[in-house]
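Board notes (copied after class):
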Amino acid sequence: MKKIYILIILLISISLIGIIVVQIMSIRNALKLKNEELEQYIQLAVVEVGRDLASQKEKFSVFGSPKLLPGWPADQFLQNLRPTVDQRFTPAQVYEMLKKSFQKYGFKNKDFEFAVINRVMDNNYEMQTLNFSKLIADTARNKAYVVPLSTPGGSIASGLVAEEELWVIVPNVRSILMPSLGWMIGGSVLFTLVICTAFFVTVRTMLMQKKLSEIKSDFINNMTHEFKTPLATISLAVDALNNEKVLESKDKMQYFRGIIKDENKRMNKQVETILQAALLDKEEVQLNLQPLGVNEVIDNVVENFKLQLDAKNGTIALSLNAKKDIIRADEVHFTNLISNLIDNAVKYSREEGLHLSVSTQNAGNNIRIRIEDDGIGMSKETLSRVFEKFYRAHTGNIHNVKGFGLGLSYVKTMVEAQKGKIKAESTLGKGSVFIIDFPLVRKQNAAVSVA
């Protein structure tokens, strides 16, 4: 079964990784195609303006072709004959032409910078805008588009107009690219997260089912063992009662009847524990919350455990130092939870020499109950799961600890149901300590109910 779980998790993991890789490749390809499309549209917008500028350059003055007049220097005549962009347009006019062309191709309110470069006159930047030089230096983030402003071959101005180029810098092209694909990237990320969440929930559910299956098996084994022992004892006692020698002795009859009665009580207590756990699951336990004196309840519970402690040569130290000890609690359930904690310490004690310490003290508006032992302690794994239902610390193949693993689960449920908090601390081989905090009743002179 374990191999099947590993195989399923492995296959789901491979599928998930494959889906993520495909999503990343799809997004990269979409970004590449969109980038090419954007650059193509920007290039078309720039080319359109460049064509208009070039066509305006080839038009001579309305007074006809220039003539060389007496006294004109030759260079002045050539400059007049070969017009430049800045002779016909202002930077604002070129900017408006570019802006309208950009809007035509879907780039509304997009920033750009431009310059007209005269290649003949020592790379002179004519009509250069303010940030052009700064932006053209950052080629990693900004994209430059260049259009030569030459007249068509065969026209009247062919070879006569100045050799110029229109340069347009579009800063941070990715700022256009990412919003246009935002829905695709956002959708891919969203669905990938959904798939990852579904994978996590699936694996978690599988592991929980596996854990529940193991708990169920352990519970059935424990329950079988717990019922098998008293049933076997009762069976032997019944057989003994049929013996003639036993029938002739009233003392022996009374002895075996006592055994049957005690084992019957033990079985009833185990059944009651299981039924109580079922009620806790359904949240059908009704609490009768009344003012209750903590110190007196603890003193009564400890008195009931003296025989068990004597059997193990154990001792218990009481330090009931809380001056304010009245809380609102259910007397029966509060008594049971204290009994369960002490009983748990006795169960997981060493063979001999157990020492328990039970103390109370006031901590602000709470009373703190501390139950400490020097028993076998708990490992980190056991400590993290000690309040789980049906969980029992492993003690190897020796079944020397009785119970179904419901005691501490019941304790935690009852503590929280009565507005308290509980935590456990332990060191393997050195013992454990359980610390419980309950809120105090504000008026400590209230009537106290103690059995």
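Comment from the instructor: The CA atoms of residues 136 and 443 lie 80 Å apart. The two ends are 52 Å apart (CA to CA).
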